[in-house]
Amino acid sequence: MKSDRNMIRRARVEDAEVLADLAIQMWPAHALEDLTAEFRQLVRNDDAVCFIKYADDKPIAFAQCQLRHDYVEGTESSPVGYLEGVFVSEEYRKKGYAAQLLSECENWAKKKGCTEFASDCELNNIDSFRFHMALGFAEANRIICFRKEL
To answer: What is the pLDDT of residue 6?
Structure first.
């Protein structure tokens, strides 16, 4: 049987380190060990999923999504499939891999009974905004969050 060197597959517990190695590039404020532990838990959760994209047998991208049962801005149903993160290594960008990963997430959410899919991005993340708009998302709202020390 021939292996597909450029496949997308659902992540398993043993992929937690691979996921963390990719995710730390998107979320550098996190500790690698913490991300690894989080992904170990996440891939065991029936309400969450991660997909890994391979190019020439090398993991180069991932997407994380889950079901959200609480209110999701701009939606009318529950649960809602929610894209928590998508990352493609820099040298592999602009090849449609993020769109492929999003499609896997959307299909997973449909199989879980979702009729809506949502996501978010920071106000200043123009690349993420363009990605979402190009792939059929509609902007639901814009917010600025505040905090202060007590």
So the answer is: 81
Q: Report the pLDDT value the prediction gives residue 4, as an integer from 0 to 100.
A: 66
| Beta strand pairing call for 8-10 and 48-55 | antiparallel
**How far is C-alpha 20 from the chain's CA centre?**
13
Number of separate domains in the chain = 1
CATH number at residue 24: 3.40.630.30
Report mean pLDDT in 10-residue bins for the chain, 150 residues.
74 97 95 97 96 95 97 93 96 95 97 95 90 92 82
In a domain, 89, yes or no: yes
Instruction: Give me 8's structure tokens.
Output: 């997308």
CA 125 to chain centre: 15
The long-range contacts involving 57-61, CB below 8 angstroms and separated by at least 24 positions, are: 57/3, 57/5, 59/18, 59/21, 59/22, 60/22, 60/88, 60/89, 60/92, 60/97, 61/22, 61/86, 61/87, 61/88, 61/89, 61/92, 61/97, 61/98, 61/101
Domain that holds residue 47: 8-134
For strand 117-118 and strand 80-88, is the pairing parallel, antiparallel, or unpaired?
Answer: parallel
